[in-house]
Amino acid sequence: MSRVLSGMRPTGPLHLGHLLGALENWIHLQNTHECFFMVADLHALMGEYEDPREIEKNSIAMVIDWLASGIDPEKSTIFIQSQIPEHAELALILGMLTPLGWLERNPTYKEQLREIKGRDLTTYGFLGYPVLQAADILLYKADQVPVGEDQLAHLELAREIVRRFKRLYKKDFFPEPTALLTKEARILGTDRRKMSKSYGNAIHLSDAPEAARKKVQSMITDPARVKASDPGHPDACNVYSYYKIFSDDAEVKAVYDWCAGAKKGCTDCKKTFAEILVETLKPIHERRAKIAADPAFVGKILKKGRARAEAVARETMGQVKELLHLAK
Ligand code: TRP
Ligand code: SF4
Hints:
By secondary structure, the chain is mainly alpha-helical. It folds into two domains: about 5-185 and about 295-325, Rossmann fold (3-Layer(aba) Sandwich); about 205-290, Tyrosyl-Transfer RNA Synthetase, CATH 1.10.240.10. The chain is about 55% helix and about 5% strand. The protein contains 14 helices and five strands. It has helices at about 15-30, 40-50, 55-70, 85-95, 100-105, 105-115, 125, 130-140, 150-170, 210-215, 240-245, 250-260, 265-290, 295-325, and strands at about 5-10, 35-40, 75-80, 145, 180. α3 (about 55-70) packs across α13. The radius of gyration is 22 Å and the shape is elongated. The mean pLDDT is about 95. The structure holds tryptophan (TRP) and iron/sulfur cluster. Tryptophan binds near residues 8, 9, 133 and 137.
């Protein structure tokens, strides 16, 4: 069975974009692959080293979001990156053979340096972000890595590192990991920009029904539809695009008709959608409540995950040391 590894940085509560863009995919993969899902807290530290106070709290909250969404600890290994020191160790070693130019040319690096304001990211660690990510993957010899498009450059770097390792030391020690590309998040934020915690436009998986309803009610609709008697243009409306994600074809068609035919006003239309959303989130809420009722549960899952991850990581690291003539 081929092995999957993926991770997310614990930077805050997960939202619908994470559910549709990554978690749904992970949940399916659990049935067909041996899955490792990692809380990338060291990667979070690269961006948040100036104020790391929230990282541990966010790590636990993210694991709860995963479990509530349907990541099953009986099927998958869930663990926290910083608890397995071999990630740092392998990253250091891969760093020895990674040319600086590969990292400096990395488009994600250049873009983030340009776009992320208010933080000093001109650090050694941040330049090496993809080297640590390569170590995450290679430590488990994962052959498949479900990621979004924004991570493809990092994955390509991991593949290049594997090829260089192969040339230098030994054929076929690490498999070349391939991306399982998740479709770009199909969902926009409530204000039509990219859904993101920092824009304040996200519907979180942990939002209580009342909060979710309020957010739906605040959504901007077709700007040309001033009065309920004005016919609307569903294709220009974000609420309609949400219906297309969460409803079946018949319902989507009904929305189109009442909107274009001015048969229902936007407030009503959003009320109807809010209930569909609340219904979608219900199983997640129910699982979350069960998890909350047993305060020791998450700790137990993480302990088990750590032990499983540790066993694989130690074995790989032992082999790497042997290959590189480092004392064991
Ligand atoms: N860099 C990824 C992100 O920001 C998170 C991540 C860290 C990751 N290590 C990984 C993803 C290994 C896949 C595999 O989303
Ligand atoms: Fe959007 Fe619904 Fe209003 Fe049409 S009726 S503009 S789909 S909210």
